[in-house]
Amino acid sequence: MKIISNLCCLREIFFIQIYAVRNFVKKKSYRGIKMSEMRIRPRQVLILIIVFLVVLLMVHRNCKSTYVTGPEYLQAMYAKQQNEELPKIYAITPTYARPQQKAELTRLSHIFILVPNLHWIIVEDSNNSTQLVRNLLEKSGLTQRSSMLHIKTPAAFKLQNKDPNWIKPRGVEQRNLALNWLRTNVDPDKHSIVYFMDDDNAYSAELFVEMSKTKTGRVSVWPVGLVGGLMVEKPILNTDQTQVIGFNSAWRPERPFPIDMAAFAISIDLLFKFPQAIFSYEVQRGYQETEILRHLTTRQQLQPLANQCRDVLVWHTRTEKTKLTAEEALNKQGKRSDDGVEV
């Protein structure tokens, strides 16, 4: 609305100046001077041009501005983004076809719509990028702030229908492809941040405000709620709250980095400095985080964020597997409830 208002002001000022010049010309003509002999004063033309440029600049600035009425931390983030003070965050999301996939990605897309410095790298577990994901990005207005990748998980490491989700490592191929894309397409000299953002977790927008504070050459950490059999898994800090000295993990606490994938972010320069930092199938259960972090940092070098690791801004939620017994009965009759509909 402010842009429209400024355009209207620009039009009115323009016509007022034209009207003033025309009146000046008319007055002179009434005094016996021919119209063909009239010349508009250079000073008036200069004033008209200056006014035009000033209002045009106001319109341009308003076009770049985004007006936020949400919490203060989000308003501050938009102000920094406008001044180009925010590092870009590359959020990597492995995903695969399932009944609740679109619902999960739609929920996640709302974070990207809110947070201006996020770039979404969606990696599908398939031989091709799907129309479902492409449609979602287009409808969310995120086409220019996303990258679609795809790679199929080898059959030997693919979960079967009745397998528990922990029996085989998931997202290894997809995350590694995204890391390769980053190392190929991102400028290592420009500070940016990498985050592994699974599609079944719940995220506060404030998490990305904190994540933006990740320093060059550091891995930042924070608590994660509802994970590892605890209400919260969190780093333990020293007495002055500046250094990680341990973790409160209950499950496999002997791991070098006993934290969840949602608990850390990486400064992009580290991925170029340590190209061997990738995920692997050849690790014990629960060691994927350790597998990549062991190349990049030590416990003592971790950067604690989120109010000295006291705020929980991400939760390891999991969507219940959808029960589709009635749908399966329809399928046996050669029918579908979603025929011609994208769910």
UniProtKB/TrEMBL annotation:
<protein>
    <recommendedName>
        <fullName>Galactosylgalactosylxylosylprotein 3-beta-glucuronosyltransferase</fullName>
        <ecNumber>2.4.1.135</ecNumber>
    </recommendedName>
</protein>
<dbReference type="GO" id="GO:0015018">
    <property type="term" value="F:galactosylgalactosylxylosylprotein 3-beta-glucuronosyltransferase activity"/>
</dbReference>
<keyword id="KW-0812">Transmembrane</keyword>
<keyword id="KW-0808">Transferase</keyword>
<keyword id="KW-0479">Metal-binding</keyword>
<dbReference type="GO" id="GO:0000139">
    <property type="term" value="C:Golgi membrane"/>
</dbReference>
<keyword id="KW-1133">Transmembrane helix</keyword>
<comment type="pathway">
    <text>Protein modification; protein glycosylation.</text>
</comment>
<dbReference type="GO" id="GO:0046872">
    <property type="term" value="F:metal ion binding"/>
</dbReference>
<dbReference type="Pfam" id="PF03360">
    <property type="entry name" value="Glyco_transf_43"/>
</dbReference>
<comment type="similarity">
    <text>Belongs to the glycosyltransferase 43 family.</text>
</comment>
<feature type="binding site">
    <location>
        <begin position="198"/>
        <end position="200"/>
    </location>
    <ligand>
        <name>UDP-alpha-D-glucuronate</name>
    </ligand>
</feature>
<keyword id="KW-0333">Golgi apparatus</keyword>
<feature type="site" description="Interaction with galactose moiety of substrate glycoprotein">
    <location>
        <position position="233"/>
    </location>
</feature>
<keyword id="KW-0464">Manganese</keyword>
<keyword id="KW-0472">Membrane</keyword>
<feature type="binding site">
    <location>
        <begin position="316"/>
        <end position="318"/>
    </location>
    <ligand>
        <name>UDP-alpha-D-glucuronate</name>
    </ligand>
</feature>
<feature type="binding site">
    <location>
        <position position="200"/>
    </location>
    <ligand>
        <name>Mn(2+)</name>
    </ligand>
</feature>
<keyword id="KW-0735">Signal-anchor</keyword>
<dbReference type="InterPro" id="IPR029044">
    <property type="entry name" value="Nucleotide-diphossugar_trans"/>
</dbReference>
<dbReference type="InterPro" id="IPR005027">
    <property type="entry name" value="Glyco_trans_43"/>
</dbReference>
<feature type="binding site">
    <location>
        <position position="125"/>
    </location>
    <ligand>
        <name>UDP-alpha-D-glucuronate</name>
    </ligand>
</feature>
<dbReference type="GO" id="GO:0050650">
    <property type="term" value="P:chondroitin sulfate proteoglycan biosynthetic process"/>
</dbReference>
<feature type="binding site">
    <location>
        <position position="175"/>
    </location>
    <ligand>
        <name>UDP-alpha-D-glucuronate</name>
    </ligand>
</feature>
<feature type="transmembrane region" description="Helical">
    <location>
        <begin position="44"/>
        <end position="60"/>
    </location>
</feature>
<keyword id="KW-0325">Glycoprotein</keyword>
<feature type="binding site">
    <location>
        <begin position="94"/>
        <end position="96"/>
    </location>
    <ligand>
        <name>UDP-alpha-D-glucuronate</name>
    </ligand>
</feature>
<feature type="binding site">
    <location>
        <position position="170"/>
    </location>
    <ligand>
        <name>UDP-alpha-D-glucuronate</name>
    </ligand>
</feature>
<feature type="active site" description="Proton donor/acceptor">
    <location>
        <position position="289"/>
    </location>
</feature>
<dbReference type="GO" id="GO:0005975">
    <property type="term" value="P:carbohydrate metabolic process"/>
</dbReference>
